[in-house]
Amino acid sequence: MEMTEIIADIITRKESAGGLKQVYYAACGGSLGAFYPAKCFLEAEAGMLRTGWYNSNEFVHYPPKLLGRNSLVVVASQKGNTPETVKAAEMARAAGASVIALTWETDSPITKHADYVVKYTYGDGKDIAGEKTIMALLTAVEALAQTEGYENYNKFRGGVSKIDGIVKQAAASVAGRAEAFAGEYKDDTVIYTMGSGASWSSAYMQSICIFMEMQWINSACIHSGEYFHGPFEITDEKTPFVLQISEGKTRALDERALKFLRTYGKRFEVLDARELGLGAIDPSVVDYFNHSLFNNVYSVFNKALAEARNHPLSTRRYMWKVEY
Amino acid sequence: MEMTEIIADIITRKESAGGLKQVYYAACGGSLGAFYPAKCFLEAEAGMLRTGWYNSNEFVHYPPKLLGRNSLVVVASQKGNTPETVKAAEMARAAGASVIALTWETDSPITKHADYVVKYTYGDGKDIAGEKTIMALLTAVEALAQTEGYENYNKFRGGVSKIDGIVKQAAASVAGRAEAFAGEYKDDTVIYTMGSGASWSSAYMQSICIFMEMQWINSACIHSGEYFHGPFEITDEKTPFVLQISEGKTRALDERALKFLRTYGKRFEVLDARELGLGAIDPSVVDYFNHSLFNNVYSVFNKALAEARNHPLSTRRYMWKVEY
């Protein structure tokens, strides 16, 4: 089933209960990050539909008041076996919600607690338009379009049709920069990431999933607007930052951080969505595509960094190795 | 005017427009952190009322769809002159929203764009029940109680009446531990904080306002539930953590992180709300008082740390010194 049909089916089934009124997102780590643009989309674009964005274990222990028969809960787990997320799906269904599970492993524990299972694309050469982030965005866009209506629906679909080409061209264009980045930062013990708006989450994922998890480099993800209210005091000529300059409504926040880094910092890498080609997407929807662009361009930098550091991205201390 | 009266006044004024339907929180840095428990309160306890939690500059550039005549926007600024927050208040009023400004400086720019100005307590010996965090919580609690009703209202008010005594006793009890903490961590270049639920925000404030801003120590605030999905890979016998063990619904998330740190880490400080006396507050409302407890207990540690490092908490590189 296409996402359009899945959402239509959910709406039909909820008619007798008063309709679809909430779309919640629950996941852990990188999957939670991938859900952030969808949450931002509904907060910024929806009137009646409500949303929420939760770490799965927090969702299980401290759910939103309205979770119930009028809710859709979207969960995601790469291998479909993240225990907290499996539990979140189970709990959501027990509360009367419909559950969509996004996964790469369609024969996995989470599918037992899902009404709909959607397999997303993953790995080298994948279609970016089929990735977890876009699939999650489509749950939000379709839910909005099919309930209260979404005036930019066709423009959004246009963005989806363009994103794969934009990302692949952008990724190819940064190969040389990625090598230079790896050489410059391979011995650093702390690297910050920064972003804003609906793509704050790609900075979050780069910080927690790559620098911390896969490279054991200390890191934090700083919101570009929050930077000036505390974090910027750690800026000096030595401290490294990776700064996302998004295309869309919050670009001014990112540009302000860039101006400051140019004045008081020295070691920073800038990923500018406009330079990377995202301007080809309509301004009314472009905010929601920054995440996919940044997230995939980071991959080029990350492969180079892992090689320069002789620390493969698959190295772990605890994951897959110990009980926790 | 008491908060009860302010909210009653707002509800009366909005009657002709269809009533109060959204309560949004917009601020920067520490003030944004102080708003987080109020946002969590409404997500977990409210049916009809909606909420949102925004960095002021993001709110200005990328506001929620529903911002308008049915909205209350609560803003906060210590000196009342944070430019992005002044702008957020101005923008909110232009959109037809009512604005409550929480500040310590009642003759300040932000008050020009507020319908109601509330002065909170601040500084040594302050009444904790009058602090920014509790004032913000009261906007949420009163809004809920006076619209759709809040069954634990009296229990919440009971918590407010107890919090000052609990915090002062807790702060006195950690004096010795704070000295030992300062001695142990004074030469560290990175310290992580960790928390969950409605008090994740006190870990956020400790990370961005104290370690990064006031001590120039690298830091990140890790959500206890997210820790196991990336960040925990940086755990080793050297890396320092300050872990909040909250009282209430998400305590299990914090205890799980503690168990892991006890097994694989070595250098961590634990602030346990139960040990610090928060169990005196009713379980139905206790989640919302962790933040005030942790935030104020941190102050004892921070004074000792600043002294041991010979780096006063008022030292800045950029704030008050350069344009940005």
Written overview of the protein:
The structure is a homodimer of 324-residue chains. By secondary structure, chain A is of the alpha/beta class. Chain A has 2 domains: 3-150, Glucose-6-phosphate isomerase like protein, domain 1 (Rossmann fold); 155-309, 3-Layer(aba) Sandwich (Rossmann fold). Chain A contains 10 helices and 9 strands. Chain A has helices at 3-14, 29-45, 56-61, 83-94, 132-147, 153-173, 175-185, 200-214, 251-264, 290-309; strands spanning 22-27, 50-55, 71-77, 98-103, 116-119, 192-195, 221-223, 241-245, 268-272. A 5-stranded parallel β-sheet of chain A has the order 2-1-3-4-5, sandwiched between helices. The first copy, chain A, has a 4-stranded parallel β-sheet with strand order 7-6-8-9, with helices on both faces. In chain A, α4 (83-94) links the parallel β3 and β4. In chain A, α7 (175-185) crosses α10 (290-309). The longest helix of chain A has 21 residues, at 153-173. Chain A is globular and about 60 Å long. The first copy, chain A, starts with a helix and ends in a 15-residue tail after the last helix. The mean pLDDT of chain A is 98.
